[in-house]
Amino acid sequence: MTIDYRPRGVCSNRMVVDVENGVIRSLQVQGGCNGNLQGISRLVEGMKVEEAIRRLEGIRCGFKATSCPDQLAQALKQSAQA
């Protein structure tokens, strides 16, 4: 399954996540802090969706109510509910 998500409230503007059998196979992010998002992408590859949600949900970026990791968790949660 491919999740094409438009994050809100952060610098990145698109996340494309490939999930197979409940495991994240790849994550590509457009916009945002390139180095940090490449690191997050590599860290979540091979991780179970539930574990990624648990680890990333609620992370904030400065004074913002959300962050790119939190938006990734939101994208994964939406796809799990669909």
UniProtKB/TrEMBL annotation:
<feature type="domain" description="TSCPD">
    <location>
        <begin position="7"/>
        <end position="78"/>
    </location>
</feature>
<dbReference type="Pfam" id="PF12637">
    <property type="entry name" value="TSCPD"/>
</dbReference>
<protein>
    <recommendedName>
        <fullName>ribonucleoside-diphosphate reductase</fullName>
        <ecNumber>1.17.4.1</ecNumber>
    </recommendedName>
</protein>
<dbReference type="InterPro" id="IPR024434">
    <property type="entry name" value="TSCPD_dom"/>
</dbReference>
<keyword id="KW-0237">DNA synthesis</keyword>
<dbReference type="InterPro" id="IPR023806">
    <property type="entry name" value="CHP03905"/>
</dbReference>
<dbReference type="GO" id="GO:0071897">
    <property type="term" value="P:DNA biosynthetic process"/>
</dbReference>
<dbReference type="GO" id="GO:0000166">
    <property type="term" value="F:nucleotide binding"/>
</dbReference>
<dbReference type="GO" id="GO:0004748">
    <property type="term" value="F:ribonucleoside-diphosphate reductase activity, thioredoxin disulfide as acceptor"/>
</dbReference>
<comment type="similarity">
    <text>Belongs to the ribonucleoside diphosphate reductase class-2 family.</text>
</comment>
<keyword id="KW-0547">Nucleotide-binding</keyword>
